[in-house]
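Dear support,

I submitted the protein below through the web form. The confirmation email said the job was done, but the results page showed an empty box. After a refresh the structure appeared. I'm attaching both so you can tell me whether what I see now is the final result or a partial one.
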Amino acid sequence: MNNQLKAFTLIETLLYVVVFSIIIVVIMNVGLFLSTSSGQTSERSLLISEGSLVMNKIIKTVETGATYNSGSSSIGSSPSTLVFTDNDADTISLRMNTDKIQKGVNGVFSDLHSTDLTVDSFVAERLNTNISEEIFRISIDFSNVYGDTFSITSSANFLYD
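What the results page shows now:
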């Protein structure tokens, strides 16, 4: 009887360990890439969602307008400042302050969005000079920490005049 045991040599064992290590490193790199990519996609979605929310807040604010204040407004280029009196006789201001869009009510300002969003440009334009109906186009450029950018433009008019 021949009682020889089959076994791996030292070189074969080392070769298997090296191949297994390479496979593990490749799998870890793919997982890291997918995780980073998912985080960037999430940040991009947040940028679009919050940018749209800010624009909706601005449009709703402009729709409360009754009288446009051309003397206090600076519109047509970035950073614009849009000032008007609303239907409650409050003075409303929309402006870009550093990298934030702010809404002011009678001179008291508050940010319209979180610090995760950077405003690169805020332009308000008066589309007509007809006193009976004020129409404005608002354009905003946003960015985030990953360098993603999002531009949004909308129009609004005073509903109370």
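Response: this is the final, complete result; the empty box was a page-load delay. The mean pLDDT is 84.
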